[in-house]
Amino acid sequence: MATLNDYLLASGLLFTVGFAGVLLRRNIIIIFMALELMLNAANLSLVGFSRFHTQAGLPDYNAQVLVFFIITVAAAEVAVGLAVIVALFRAKQTTHIEDLNTLKF
Amino acid sequence: MPAPLFWIFVLIMLFFGVMVVVNRSPVASAMSLVVCFLGLAALYISLDAFFLGVIQILVYAGAVMVLFLFIIMLLDLKAERRRHFNLIAMFGGIVVVVLFVKVLFDVCYGFQGGNAVFPAIHNAEHGDTWQVGMALFLQYKLPLQMIGALVVVASVGAVLLSKRELK
Amino acid sequence: MNSAPWIILFSPLLAAAVIVIATQPLKKFSSYLSVAAVAISFLFSLTLFGSPDQDLSFNWIDLGVFQVRIGYLIDGFSKMMLLVVTGVGFLIHVYSIGYMHDDRGRSRYFAGLSLFMFSMLGIVLANNFIMMFIFWELVGVSSYILIGHWFERPSAADAANKALIVNRIGDFGFMLGILMVWSASGTVMFGELASKWSTLGIGATYATMAALFVFCGAVGKSAQFPLHVWLPDAMEGPTPVSALIHAATMVAAGVYMLARVYFLFAGSAAALAVVLWIGVFTSLLAALMATQQSDIKRVLAYSTLSQLGLMVSAIGLGVPVSALFHLFTHAFFKALLFLGAGSVIHSLHNEQNMWQMGGLRKKMPLTFWTFLIATLALSGCPPLAGFWSKDGIVAAAFEHNLAAGLVISVINFFTAFYMMRLFVVAFLGTARSEAAEHAHESPPVMTVPLVLLAIPSLIAGFPPIEHIFFPNGGGAEPSIGAIAVSLAVFVAGIAAGFVLYRDKNSDPVSIPLFANRFYIDQFYAVLIKWTQDALAGVAAFVDRWFIDGGLVRGLGGTTWGFGFALRFLQIGNLQAYAFLFGFGVVLLLYLILFAA
Question: Residue C574: its chain A contacts at CB < 8 A?
């Protein structure tokens, strides 16, 4: 049987993959997708804990409600983020992250 | 869930997660991400979170990834050509990732409580969806309304941000 | 309490204050006021002469552990000095009325003279070290004011500075000496110290050091080597000033002080030896330098230096009374010499080079004869005053230290030689310049003091006269050997001077070393420049590297550097930010979970 530790390990590894994607990829769309991976990793660990902390024979639904909210917020964030990327693309004609560096000293 | 099944789905999820990061074509990345979400949904279901598993497919794979694909098509992104590597950034990235993995392993196998088997669930008279719905509408009314407002604001914002200048 | 000493002391001060505050435009009135003040002091000094000895003081500053007392000490020494200072001072004040007749700054001059009288009388009357030191400094200031009377002349201004600065160097040593004496004995009163000093059980080294530091004050004030350089330059002041300050009284203050505190030296043979040989050395040096000078006042200045050296060496020989006796007679004939020189200078319209004079015997008879008397007195011609006093010193020298005695005899030879040289060139022969051709005798206001000073130059040395002023004995008794040697050198010196310089129009002997005063001034200039450059270099280095570089630019630079380094966190590169986040998170996790 899979134990909680296994689920947490899976979650952590997924998070690591996502983080590596954020650090190592150059295309901003891909970076965004890796960001989604990180969010989902967090969701997975939340659901794991929800199942682990049972109350009166039922899983702890507070965590699941939180996951619901996270999914919603992530969706909204994706919408707005992609709109920003579209606007940037229209201005700079590039999605390469190193060309999008004008917010500096 | 029997262990082998669990590990299969974890493998799918991780493999396609890595594919997302590694692929050079954005469309291939997006597709890999969809499959990754599928694996994740399976894991949710294995944890008796049926509602969330379905919502994951519907919202993430169904709406968010479609949005991603639309934008990729809109911007007409081609496969990335090789550009020169920034060796320092790469090195930094790898270092942080390795360190994180190390911390992760240390934490996970130091967490004694996590080695127990999941407690049993008595089947309640109502399903999992009913339970989540009750929690959402009774305990978390206010956050729900705020989420609603947030989604509206996001929509309006997205429309505003992507408008072309009116000539 | 007898008020005579206070009147003596404060009447010149009052005159000076009135002149400075009120009567500067009224030049004649100022001069008469000053003369009157001195006359009053002189009269009261006469009355004091007959009164018994007193030692009185009252607290001026009382700080518990430390008290500064102001008072007066009337004993044999101070009675004699009071008369000399006020008497000679009075005659010089009268002379000044004539000499400074056409000067624009007359009021300032007489105020300065009165201030000087006040300060000098303070030194004479002082009964403790602190009071003496206060007036010591005042005398230095008065000297500065008077030397720089014609301050528009750069040489005069420089000379005044030099006098003050060199005096200050000596005074610094003096102050150290006073502090050492006070810390060893707890008191600064002369009366108490005289009885206590030898019984205090102070270590020999400490006592010698204290005595030598106190001697520093005399080295500065009485212009001994190596602080003698200010006296010849001080001749830039008006001639009456030279007469009063730099011949008769101020420079003698050092010798007077040494005689007062002789008890400090009495126990220390080492200190006495230092004093003796500095005095002898100064005397010899000055005598040699005087043989080659052409300015009449310079010759007299070096002569003063030489005689002061003799007085100091008398202290070193252990006969302070002889030193004071020589001081007493020297005041008269040196003042007379300077006033006579002033008379010549005045009538030759400020010509001071003796090779431009000559043939003044018929034209200025009174000046001629009084100058001759003074020259002979200084050279040690019996039975004039100088003979008795110099002989006392020579006798003491032969008794205590034969080497010193021989050197002093050589010095006396040179003294006679250069004085005769001066007299022959300046007064005898034929006139060498237009000014000398048209010379005429000075007005009575100037010649009467000359005559009046000639009298004591003639008779002040005689034993009966001496006993009036030195009732406690006149020091060493002259021995036959000493008298013989003194007479011999006197005759030889006079003859040599007369023969060598008769009817010459320029100096037959030329010794640049002496004429250039042994290049001591140049050596000091180089020394001072070198020291100042070194100090300035160190200060500049510290300023540039430590204060400028380290503190000011260092602080600014450090801040700037931090700012510059931190700027790189804001480079606009998204992934760099992400890296920093990740790294920070990992670090935090590590710290919280495993290290804390």
Answer: 28, 31, 97, 100-101
For residue B160, count other CB atoms closer than 10 A to its CB: 11
Name the band, by pLDDT with cuts 50, 70 and 90, for residue A39.
very high
What is the per-residue DSSP string for C21-58? HT-TT-HHHHHHHHHHHHHHHHHHHHHHHHSPPEEEEE
Backbone φ and ψ for C56, nearest 5 degrees, come out as -135, 145
Which chains, if any, share at least 3 CB pairs under 8 A with chain A?
Answer: B, C
Q: Residue C73: enclosing H or E segment and its boundaries?
A: strand C67-74
Report the sign of the C-alpha dihedral through residues C517, C520, C526, C532, in that order: negative
Instruction: Report chain A's terminal Cα–Cα distance, integer Å.
Output: 54
| Chain B: residue whose CA lies nearest to A14 | B14
Q: Report the C-alpha gap between C63 and B14 in whole angstroms.
A: 94
Locate all alpha helices (DSSP H) within C502-572, ordered by sequence. 512-515, 520-541, 554-567
If you measure CA to CA, which chain C residue comes closest to A35? C578
Helices C269-290 & C296-316 angle (0-180, nearest 10): 160
Which of C405-426 are b and which e, b meaning 16 or more Cβ less than 10 Å from the residue's Cβ? bebbbbbbbbbbbbbbbbbbbb
- Partners of C202 in beta bridges: none
**Residue C146: both structure tokens together:** 């008077």
Distance from CA of A58 to the nearest CA of C (A): 31
Considering only CB atoms, which chain C residues are within 8 Å of B93? 575, 579
Whether A83 sits inside 8 A of B118 (CB atoms) is no
Cβ distance C425 to C384 under 8 Å?
Answer: no
* Orientation of helix C4-21 relative to helix C27-50, angle to 10°: 170
- Measured CA to CA, the distance from residue C228 to residue C221 in angstroms comes to 9
Interface membership of C565 toward A (CB under 8 Å): no
Start-to-end CA distance of chain C, whole Å, equals 90
- What is the three-class DSSP state of B79? coil
User: Rounded to whole angstroms, how far apart are CA atoms C336 and C91?
Assistant: 10
Token pair recorded at residue A67: 């996951």
Secondary structure (DSSP) of C345-394: HHHTTS--BGGG----TTTSHHHHHHHHHHHHHHHT-TTSHHHHHHHHHH
Contact between residue B71 and residue A85 where contact means Cβ atoms under 8 Å apart: yes
Handedness of CA B147, B150, B154, B155 (dihedral sign): positive
* C-alpha–C-alpha distance, residues C299 and C287, integer Å: 9
Name the residue in chain C with its Cα closest to that of B92: C579
Give, to the nearest 10 degrees, the angle between helix B3-22 and helix A4-24: 10
Chains touching C (at least 3 CB pairs under 8 A) are A, B
pLDDT by residue (tens digit) across C305-338?
A: 899 999 999 888 888 888 888 888 888 888 899 9
Helix runs in C401-443, H state only? 402-427, 434-437
The model's pLDDT over C100-125, given as tens digits with 9 standing for 90+, comes to 888 888 888 999 999 999 999 999 98
Amino acid at C107: S
Contact indicator for C366, C358 with CB cutoff of 8 Å: no
Paired with C68 in beta bridges are: C61
Using the Cα atoms of residue C401, residue C404, residue C410 and residue C411 in order, give the sign of their dihedral. Answer: negative
Q: Is the peptide bond before C226 cis (omega within 30 degrees of 0)?
A: yes
Of the CA atoms within 13 Å of residue C297, those in its CB half-sphere come to: 24
Residue C29 has pLDDT above 90, yes or no: no
Place of tokens 């400090």: C264
Tokens, residue C193:
């110290």
In angstroms, the Cα distances linking A14 to B59, C312, C423, C585 are 19, 106, 121, 17
ipTM for the predicted complex: 0.90
- Sort C120 into a burial class: Cβ within 10 Å, 0-12 / 13-18 / 19+: buried
Query: DSSP per residue over C154-199, as a string?
Result: HHHHHHHHHHHHHHHHHHHHHHHHHHHHHHHHS--BHHHHHHHGGG
3-state class (DSSP) for residue A27: strand
